[in-house]
Amino acid sequence: MSGYRKKFLLLTTEFPPGPGGIGNHAYNLSDFLSRNKYDVKVITASDYTDETKETEFDKKHNFGIIRFKRYRSRYRTYRERLKIINDSVKSEDFTHIIFSGRFSLYASLFLKKYKSKIKFIAIAHGGDINAGNRIEKMFITKAMRNMDLIIPVSEFSGTKLPAGISDSKIKVIPNGFNFEKMDTLKLRNKRDIKDQLTLVSVGTVWPRKGHHNVLNAFSEILKIYPEVRYNIAGRLADLSKVTEYFEDKNLKEHLYIHGQVTDEQLHNILRDSDIFILLSESQSSGDFEGFGIAVLEANFFGLPAIGSKNSGLEDAIQHGVSGLIVDPNNNEEICNAITEIKNNYSHYSDGARKWAAVHHWSEIIKRYINEIEKIN
Hints:
By secondary structure, the protein is of the alpha/beta class. About 40% of the residues lie in helices and about 15% in strands. It has helices at about 20-35, 50-60, 75-90, 100-110, 135-145, 155-160, 210-215, 220-225, 245, 265-270, 295-300, 315, 330-345, 345-355, 360-375; strands at about 5-10, 40-45, 65, 95-100, 120-125, 150, 200, 230-235, 255-260, 275-280, 305-310, 325. Helix 2 links the parallel strand 2 and strand 3 (about 65).
């Protein structure tokens, strides 16, 4: 099958210009497959953005994008989505379907009749494969067993896959990053931290991302670095665990809460920061940090990273080189990691840039193509 023209359908639960790591991954996978002369079509949910931005975004790309509508009725929403997917698969000669996100995995169960002529590929991120509900677990397990190839985005994500799946189907490929026109980005070549220390977290503010773990350690951090600043960039989704800190008058002058930002705003925030910190924690619902693309983006700007043990961040950070892995509930470890990086900033900053370079999508896509070719 290696000599024929491959045509990919990518089903995803997120896609730019909306936020989200699954969408970031889906976009770059689609874009770089297209750059490598594969035919690509995307069918996606499209939340947290508006139609004008979607239209402008879609016009810039040479692969087709169909965006689902969301109706008041959840039943109608999913019925219409499945109809669009089925009609597309029925009318076009796709050779591969890539499923990314939980709804996409569920949708694969309705496409089993096409398995004889189409290869099924699943991307395993985080909570999408680790449902807490027994019924959802059953559906995810069935979906995964139908796959020809399963690609976890980290070794940690791979450990969360349902039991009974052949190891030969599972190939871990880490997340990648990509900034358009990277050569035009103005990067600082900062060799050390002389004055004010600035931490930064990037990602949706909700319990899994663990902003509260950073803020819980803040009283200890302030004892060592009384002028510390903390940039928080990302959609404000669930503030239940951070409200008390956001309203603490002793912390307010140190916190800079940016909300959802544009790429240009994000680049400016990263340039003005020193250390990236993401102290994610797994949730009782089964949701967990699968990798952490934002880590690599920060690394590209020369920012070392501090991340959580027992999460996909162990794959996203090269411990001792691009940053450090800590217990997110141990304030002493967190403070020691900050001090270690600050005192050896040149070492960690250089390591971060090199780590980012090998995770650029121009390199990561080679691994995808290699594994996809093997299943044909």
